[in-house]
From TrEMBL:
Annotated CDD domains: Cadherin_repeat (cd11304)
Keywords: Calcium, Cell adhesion, Cell membrane, Glycoprotein, Membrane, Repeat, Signal, Transmembrane, Transmembrane helix
Gene name in the database record: Pcdhgb2
Keyword Transmembrane helix among record annotations: yes
Protein name: PCDGE protein
GO cellular component, one term: plasma membrane
Domain Cadherin: from-to ranges: 16-101, 102-206, 207-315, 316-353
Annotated source species: Formicarius rufipectus
Coiled coil start-end: none
Length: 353
């Protein structure tokens, strides 16, 4: 009997036979076993009594799927004699139950560098129905295409796995819907929330926003030579950056307000320049993050020193002594003096007087 059968529906049962005659063969039926069913007797065209099973209460296969009743027939003899038969009722299923997830929201945390095919989480839904009505399959709900590129869901066991490479810097949390459907078309819904854990997979990046080159050699200490931008796409300690300038260059890196090199550090003069000592400086800036192991990024800067007229000409001798005869002709060369200037350009061109 289907669990959807309306109340009052009747089902004919088999008649009992009694070989006696008269009152000894007149039968009375009785049904024993469960109040969900009752018994009525209807007369057939040939005058026999046919017992009918009547559904008295709504059936629910999920609560009780099998009933075992006892049908007895008692004749009118003295003493009366009885016969009995067992009536076994199997309640067939109606798809009257939707799947039910064990949780409303399933949460997971996974590292961004896990390989494709890795298990992220597993959802589970049950259905109280039987057969195909209780067989659950899993699928995505209404989700963006980007989710389907990065994740898969197994229709049989509800396992959610990665299908592509996750990237914390692109997106740190995915929230999407999953459906459980039974064989009769009923559905249940749940949410999956997947938080991506940052890995130190990005090296710091140094960008030169502006560069003042050449720099006059008489520029004062503290002059800003370059404005930098240092950035690490990772988060937390993996994205905390420190900068350094190795070597003996007369420049240093100064962090801007707040002390974070993620803002805009400046490259400034740390001591006076001397073009005559070094006409240019090749600098290698290095940025290092706080990951374990740490990752580094570098940038090269060439700073040219512009000459200032900070050197006077110098004669090759402090004093020239010449002995000349008094009758030397006018216009004769008496001595040649020489002076040099270490500055360059016009600053180093020497004139005599």
């Amino acid at each position: 009997i289907g669990e959807w059968i309306p109340l009052g529906t009747s089902f004919p049962l088999e008649m009992a036979r009694d070989a006696d005659v008269g009152s000894n063969s007149q039968l009375i039926y009785q049904l024993i076993g469960n109040p969900s069913f009752s018994l009525i007797v209807q007369e057939t065209p040939d005058g026999s009594d046919l017992p009918h099973l009547i559904v008295e209460r709504s059936l629910d296969r999920e609560k009780e799927s099998l009933f075992e009743l006892l049908l007895t027939a008692t004749d009118g003899g003295e003493p009366p004699r009885t016969g009995s038969v067992q009536v076994r009722i199997n309640v067939t299923d109606l798809n009257d139950n939707s799947p039910v997830f064990s949780k409303r929201v399933y949460e997971a945390r996974v590292a961004e560098n896990i390989p494709a095919g890795s298990l992220v989480l597993r959802v589970q839904a049950t259905d109280a129905d039987a057969g195909t009505n209780g067989r659950v399959s899993y699928s995505f709900g209404d989700v963006p295409d980007g989710v389907r590129v990065l994740f898969t869901v197994d229709s049989e066991n509800g396992e959610v796995r990665t299908a592509g490479q996750l990237d914390f810097e692109e997106k740190s949390t995915y929230i999407f819907g999953l459906d459980a459907s039974d064989g009769g078309g009923l559905k249940a819904h749940c949410k999956a929330q997947i938080d991506i854990i940052d890995e130190n997979d990005n090296a710091p990046e140094i960008t030169i926003l502006s560069l003042s080159s050449p720099v006059p050699e008489d520029a004062p200490v503290g002059t800003v030579v370059a404005l930098l931008k240092v950035r690490d796409r990772d988060s937390g300690e993996n994205g905390e950056v420190s900068c350094e300038l190795p070597g003996e260059a007369p420049l240093t890196i100064v962090a801007t307000a707040g002390g974070s090199y993620k803002v805009r550090p400046e490259l400034v003069l740390a001591k006076a320049l001397d073009r005559e000592e070094a006409a240019f400086h090749e600098l290698v800036l290095r940025a290092m993050d706080g990951g374990d192991p740490a990752r580094t990024g570098t940038a090269r800067i060439r700073v040219t020193v512009l000459d200032a007229n900070d050197n006077a000409p110098v004669f090759s001798q402090a004093e020239y002594t010449v002995r000349v005869p008094e009758d030397v002709p006018v216009g004769s060369t008496l001595v040649t003096v020489a002076a040099t200037d270490v500055d360059e350009g016009q600053n180093g061109q020497v004139k005599y007087s």
